[in-house]
Structure formats: C-alpha cells, structure tokens
Amino acid sequence: MSGVINQFGSAGASIYLNRALDTLTSQQTALEAEATSGVVTTSYSGFGSNTATVLALQGQASQIDAWQGNITTAQSTLSVTATTLDSIASIASSLTTTLTELTGTASQSQISLAANSARSELNSLQSLLNTQVGGRSILAGQDATNTVVNADSPLSESALATNIANAVANLSTEGSAAVMSQTIALAADNNPDISPFSSSLSLSGTSASGLSSRIALGQGAMTNVGVVATAGTGATSSSTGSPIRDLMRNLMVVASLGSTDAGSDTVSSLAQGLLQSSSGVVTGLGAMQGQVGLMQDDLSTRATALTQMSTSLTTQYSALTNADLASVATALSQTQTQLQASYSLIADMKGMTLANYI
C-alpha cells in the first residue's frame, strides 16, 4: 500500500515540478544570454510592443550613417578640389607677373622665355584639371567618370592651341585687338573639333554651372558638391565666361608668341589686353575657391547636426535594447536559487513513503 501511495504521490508531484523546472531553466538560459550579450533579446519578437520602435530606430540610424558617409566622401573630394584650385590660381598669378613684364619693351629672348613658360604651364593646367579622387574627376561635375580635358595628348598641342597659334601668327598684320577677339571666340567654341574639354563640359559657363555633383544629406535634402571646370557666366566680347577657359586661352596666346615676328609695341599691346583678362581670371578663380570653402563649412555644419541626431537615436535605441545588468544579475541569482530548491525537493521526494504523507 505504501508503495502505491509513494508511486502516486511522486508521479503527481513530478509533473508539476518538471514543468516548474522547465520554466526556471528557460528563464535561467534567457537571463544568462542577456547577461552575456548585454541586450534584452537577440530576436525582434523578444522586444514585444517595442519591436516596431526598435526597427524604426535601426532604419533611421542606417540612413544617418549613409548621409554621414556621403559627407565624409564629399569633404575628402572638396579638400582635394581646394588644393587643385589653389594650384590653378598660382598658375594664373604667375601668368599675371609674366604679362606685366611683357607690357614694357620686351626683348625677343624675354618673349621666348614667356612662351616656353606658358607652354609648360598649359601642361600643368591639364594635369590639374584632370585630378581625380577615387577614380572620379573632381572638376567634371556629374560626368565625373570622364576626364575634364583630353588626356591623350598635351594641351599645348591641342586643336584649340593650334587654332590660337594661327591667330597669333597674324598679330603683326591684324593687330592685338583682332587677335584678342579671335582667340576669345575660339576658346568659347564648344565644337568638339576645337574644344579640348569633354563633350559634357563643352557648354556655356552658365549651363556648366548647373552640372555640379549632388549628394543626399537628409530625407529629400540634396546639395551641390564641387565646381565644374567650364562653369561661369555667359560669354562676352572679352571673356569666354569661364575663368578656367580664359586662363587656358591666355596661356595659349602667350605660348604662341615665340613664333611671332610682331614688334615689341604690338606684343605689349596684346599683353595689356591679356593682363586685363588675367585680372578677371584671378577674380573668377577666387570666387570658385570661395564657393568650395562655403560648401566645406556647410557640410561641417550638417555633419555636426547628423552626429547629434545619431547620438539621440543611439540613446533611444539603447534604452529599449540594452539590458539592465544589475537587475539581470539579481533575477539570475533568484532563478538559480529556485532551481536548486526544486532539485532538492525532487531528491527528497524520491525517498518518501506512506508515513511521509500521514
């Protein structure tokens, strides 16, 4: 009889104790995982009513990361752009010095020296215009996969340089005013047989200004990044409208003076006209440099704002997902105590007889 009661009592109690053990064991496993990972749960379903909020915060954080990545890339490109424009401005400044010297009574050796220097600067300009960052041309705007000017041959030997040299060859007969006018028209010509620029950049200065690269910095927020080589204003009788085109034209004219037999007075007159143009080039390049500086400042401001947003999202996300390790440790200790008590009770029950039930 006692054996029957023992068996009945043990079996009945075991059902409830085993269920309790399963529950406590699952709780212990979950608490140990929480303590190890430092997060409330490793599955979205574990967040319960907060699941939608957690997912939304993750999506917003990913967007901010992408926008911050855009800014980092853009700032890197703008930094190189600023350095490149500085170098181009140095070429323009050096040409201004040369032209000032030619406005006096220049000897043939001085003219030849100026021509050789201009030819060398033309090739330096070509290299600067084709500067790339990450395989993308920084002065090509939206067509950054192509070079700004033809890289297959020296700029000093381009079709534009040849046409300008032909115009300068008539300096002694046609005069400086005619040569100035002809060379401006040639430099502003977007005919692919003449223009050294890529087809996408062989546009008026006004049109080229609208070709700046654009990046996303927020939901529906786009901004221009960088400048375009041929950007500027509409062409006039004294300018192509683009500072860089004007600089290129001025260098090509000076580079062609070495082969002309025009008198020093005619060369001086031409140099005076080019000097006025050079002054506009320096001003135009300064404006481009200022534009890049403003872009850098704007991106820095936006980067700070995005960092603040990211910090706020991280705080919200952590509040929902990070475990309270102190509370977890307490709960884990309590669960382990309950498990030990349950195991002890089961062990005691195995030795119980009828007398224990009376």
From the structure above, extract its key features.
f41 fragment of flagellin, N-terminal domain, 68% helix, two-stranded antiparallel ribbon, mainly alpha, 10 helices, 358 residues
Report on the structure:
The protein is mainly α. The protein has a single domain, classed as f41 fragment of flagellin, N-terminal domain (Up-down Bundle), CATH 1.20.1330.10. 68% of the residues lie in helices and 4% in strands. The protein contains 10 helices and 4 strands, in the order αααββαααββαααα. It has helices at 2-37, 51-102, 108-129, 159-168, 171-188, 205-208, 243-255, 264-321, 325-349, 354-357; strands at residues 132-133, 136-137, 213-218, 221-225. The strands form 2 sheets. It has a two-stranded antiparallel ribbon. A two-stranded antiparallel ribbon has the order 3-4. A hairpin with a 2-residue loop joins strand 3 and strand 4 (221-225). Helix 7 (243-255) runs antiparallel to helix 8. The longest helix is centred in the C-terminal third of the chain and has 58 residues, at 264-321. It is rod-shaped. It starts with a helix and ends with a helix. The relative contact order is 0.16. The model has no long low-confidence stretch (mean pLDDT 83).
Brief account:
The chain is mainly alpha-helical. The chain has helices at residues 2-37, 51-102, 108-129, 159-168, 171-188, 205-208, 243-255, 264-321, 325-349, 354-357, and strands at 132-133, 136-137, 213-218, 221-225. Strand 1 and strand 2 (136-137) form a beta hairpin.
